Amino acid sequence: MRAMTSQIMVDDIEAEEEGIAETLLDMDTIAQAPRPGTSLKTSVNPHSSGQGFRPRGDTGRPVSGVVRPSTQCGRASSLEAALRTPRTARSARPSTSQSARTVRLGTASMVSQPDGPFIQVARLHLPKYAADDKLAKPLFQYIFYHENDVRNALDLAVEATKAVQFKDWWWKLQLAKCYFLLGLIRDAEQQLRSALKQHPTVEGFLRIARVYIRLDQPLSAVEICRSGLQVFPHEVTLMTEIARVLEGLNSIPASVKYYKEILQKDATNIEGIACIAVNHFYNDQPEVALRFYRRLLQMGLYNTELFNNLGLCCFYSQQYDMTISCFERALGLAVDEAAADVWYNIANVAIALGDLKLASQCLRLALSVDSNHAPAYNNLGVLEHRRGNVTQARSYFQAAGALAPYLYEPFYNSAVIDNAIGDLQSSYVAVQKALQAYPAHKSSNELLKDLKKLFNNI
Prior knowledge:
Elements (H helix, E strand, L loop, with lengths): L1 H7 L11 H5 L44 H4 L6 H10 L9 H8 L20 H5 L2 H14 L3 H14 L5 H13 L3 H14 L3 H13 L3 H14 L4 H13 L3 H14 L4 H13 L3 H13 L5 H13 L3 H14 L4 H16 L2 H14 L4 H13 L3 H14 L5 H13 L2 H14 L4 H16 L1
Helix pairs in contact: 1-7, 7-8, 8-9, 9-10, 10-11, 11-12, 11-13, 12-13, 13-14, 14-15, 15-16, 16-17, 17-18, 17-19, 19-20, 20-21, 21-22, 22-23, 23-24, 23-25, 24-25
């Protein structure tokens, strides 16, 4: 049982992913208008000046240094948005539930065996095996990880907890894992708190932090991790969890502070290096970001995203001889939709160099790879407007706004065009949408004032 479990066992803390079932069928009541900085849901569209400088990902969150499973889907507020998420999350698999995700990560549990399964779990008399301390734990892990049978694993954990008279923290931790997967979040919280009271563990602190993240209480998750750091000083995983939550709350400076502390304890932490590099790049320090990305390259990381970022850093650092070779490497390694981002960045380089024809071709190539790439639609609309194709530009801006309502640029550009051709009503509606996405945008506020003056004169 131990050998078969070890073959497919995965880190289910890192594999956490909130799908359609958990998002839309959640029975927990959460405040509709939480205070600013206290909810991960409201941080998707923050009303802060930082949105004008750090771009948004496909789910509306700020671009981070590392893509994580829990941030791929975003938190959908409607069924339509939830169903559209898998396509924008670069996945053809509908994100239905956490248990289904675990099966996908460990597909050995689905391998058919000619002589039948190794253990007939349905025929086991669980109270008998739960009383045997040496057998109960391997059996639980086999049922939980190999068979992916959460309900029978839960029954075994309940019987084993009774057998040890509720004195074993390990079984309480396993109960919490089962409750969490079954959506019984408050029961999982209760078991984790009891386990931590008996025996504090790093896994226990991480799991109860994930419980509070699922309940959309990020500040409680941060507090739990800080209390864990008092028990386990300088524990990198707890500091990483705090940094991730703060990044989700758009507290970028506080998040970077923790990532720097992580690098002091673990100089080879890829997530820390990448997130600090991203922060330096968007703070107009491409030379410093280049040093961090070169460090990742020296550590053996070799993928599309790294060469794409190296190309951008080289360009903005005015090291033009390296820019093209980095983008060529990125395109050579690109798979599926990753190539769209590379072509989009090459188009930005071409615009900066004044080659608008090359930029237009690159943007069209990006859209041929990923037809849902909203920034490419927006930039293509700007280029078409410069050529005088107003109708074509409007259609591109409308497509960008429909695909990414969190971007303010398409709505503002549409408002400018509508105002120029005399369609004041459409311009007024578009500029209001732009201000909903980015209230601090100066040009949008000025355009709105001008439109109000025109309406008053009429």
